[in-house]
Specification:
Elements lengths: L19 H7 L6 H29 L4 H41 L4 H33 L1 H5 L10
Helix pairs in contact: 1-2, 1-3, 1-4, 2-3, 3-4
Family: Belongs to the MTFP1 family.
GO biological process, one term: mitochondrial fission
Protein name: Mitochondrial fission process protein 1
Length: 159
């Protein structure tokens, strides 16, 4: 039996494109808002590409079962949208907004220093929030949407 080919969207550097919006939110105090929105565009393109990829893999493995293809696409898109875009983007946005406000009320640091400190805090938080958010989204999906099509755990693959 040969080794399984790595998943481009989960096992390579491409996975980091899903974190683009968290980086964008971290830099919100320093960059124009359209740059932040562009980071959401990158992350959403990643999510969409992963969902399409999982649909193609499901189609190749289960050509006679379009339901499995639909489940693979929907499950991947919803999971990735929550775990890679919506929840972490909101989390970093609120963390950075709170830290900027707190630094403004608790320190006399100049605004540029407060902005850079906020950005550094946002960037430092990204690796800390990934696993808890992923596990929470797994739980949410297993408790809701996945009950409809009976696939607990990670999004369906081509297996």
């Amino acid at each position: 039996m040969g080794q399984e080919e790595p998943d481009l969207y989960r096992d390579t550097w491409v996975r980091y494109l899903g974190y683009a919006n968290e980086v964008g939110e971290s830099f919100r105090p320093l960059v124009p808002v359209p740059v932040v929105w562009a980071s959401y565009g990158v992350a959403t393109a990643y999510v969409t590409a992963d969902a399409i990829d999982k649909g193609r893999k499901a189609a190749a493995a289960h050509a006679q079962d379009p339901t499995r293809v639909g489940v693979a696409v929907v499950d991947t898109f919803v999971w990735q949208s929550l775990a890679s875009v919506a929840i972490p983007g909101f989390t970093i946005n609120r963390l950075c907004a709170a830290s900027l406000a707190l630094l403004g009320s608790l320190t006399r640091w100049p605004l540029p220093v407060r902005r850079w400190t906020t950005t550094a805090l946002g960037l430092a938080a990204i690796p800390l929030i990934i696993t808890p958010i992923d596990r929470t989204v797994d739980f949410l999906m297993d408790s809701s949407l996945r009950k409809l099509y009976g696939t607990p755990g990670e999004p369906p693959t081509s297996h």
